[in-house]
Amino acid sequence: MLKIIDKWKIWFSLSLIVIIIGIGCMIYRGGLNFGIDFKGGTQVIFDLGNGFNKAQADKIVNEYVNDATTNTVNSNEYEIKSANLTSEQVNEIFNKFKTEFKVGDKALISQNQIGASIGKELTDNAIIALCIAFICMLIYIAIRFEFKFGLAALIALFHDILITVSVYAIFNITVNSPFIAAILTVVGYSMNDSIVIFDRIRENMKFIKRTSPREVANKSVNQTMARSINTTSTTLVTIIAVYIFVPSVRDFAFPLIVGIAAGAYSSIFIASPVWVMLKDRSLKKGKRKKEVVVEELP
Q1: Which of 38, 225, 235, 294 is deepest in the core (most CB within 10 A)?
Q2: Which residue spans traverse the membrane (predicted)?
């Protein structure tokens, strides 16, 4: 049997290294690389025809703007988002597209200005949604299991969010609105993974009495590890395939890949050790109280 809980310092250190590097990158760069959904900017969509060469289109765009993010939509539409794209630059890019891709004047489908206030409203609503979700999950787990399980699960969720944000900070990936949706999805998925392990711990505690929380947790994690890894692997294969073959949803798929992988890691290597620490601390307090009561008895 693998002694997962006994090596908690290793698991915590691995996560801390990633998070600290991510925080360092954010401090060095002055924050995350927010896209126009948060900072505001210009969104332009062109119809360049089926099977157009995206790399060639990207090369043309990069001649005019350095901060642009581009996507392929429905195999024929090409989307550009940039905080510094002017109308003159759009016209120059469009003229180049006409020459390179042999498109007409109607190839420019839309050109929109996105205000930063939309991103702020989206962020505020996402934070409120996360807080409500955390409170509801904590109440549910406290009633269904016990409060310590809920607290350990929430710590694991914060870990998953921090890891995902850190990866974006380390690689300077643009953060747009799909990132928020992906984070909310990861929270639900990670919680489900942790509950499976906690449910096994609760069942084992009924049948394995006079055993330390550490031993119960080790046995439970070993019993559910194969299930967690298989489920996560199946999910990741599907999302990676979507990321590769459906470019239009990559902004949503990539944080899902990072978050779900982090969730599988945290449910095994973070949530369970945290629960053991909380349980051991509670048992020690209980013993101290009993010792005090015994000493006070005449």
Answers
A1: 38
A2: 12-31, 126-143, 150-171, 228-246, 252-278
Round the CA-based radius of gyration of the chain to a whole number and report it: 25
Of 151, 176, 146, 156, nearest in space to 254 by CA: 176
Query: pLDDT exceeding 70 applies to what percent of the chain?
Result: 94
Continuous segment of H or E residues that includes residue 69: strand 69-73
pLDDT in tens, 87-120: 899 999 999 999 898 888 888 998 888 776 666 7
Span 54-75, mean pLDDT? 86
In a domain, 48, yes or no: yes
Return the exposure string of 118-131: e unless at least 16 CB atoms fall within 10 Å of the residue's CB, then b: ebeebbeebeeebe
Question: CATH no. for residue 125?
Answer: 1.20.1640.10
Structure-block tokens of residue 107: 């190839």
Asked if 239 and 186 touch (Cβ cutoff 8 Å), the reply is no
> Considering only CA atoms, which of 125, 131, 114 is closest in space to residue 40?
114
Dump the DSSP string for 34-95.
B-HHHH-EEEEEEE--TT--HHHHHHHHHTT-SS-EEEEETTTEEEEEESS--HHHHHHHHH
Q: Phi/psi at 70 (nearest 5 deg)?
A: -125, 150
Same domain as 198, residue 70: no
Q: Is residue 71 within a helix (H) or strand (E), and if so which, with residue range?
A: strand 69-73
77 and 143 in one domain? no
248-275, pLDDT tens digit by residue?
788 899 999 999 999 999 999 999 999 9
Q: Are 262 and 14 in contact (CB under 8 A)?
A: no
From 114, 129, 153, give the residue that closes a domain: 114
The number of domains in the chain is 2
Same domain as 183, residue 287:
yes
Same-domain pairing of 24 and 150: yes
For 282, phi and psi rounded to 5 degrees? -65, -40
Residue 10 located in a structural domain: yes
Q: How far apart are CA 249 and CA 61, in angstroms?
A: 20
Indicate the DSSP class of residue 270: T
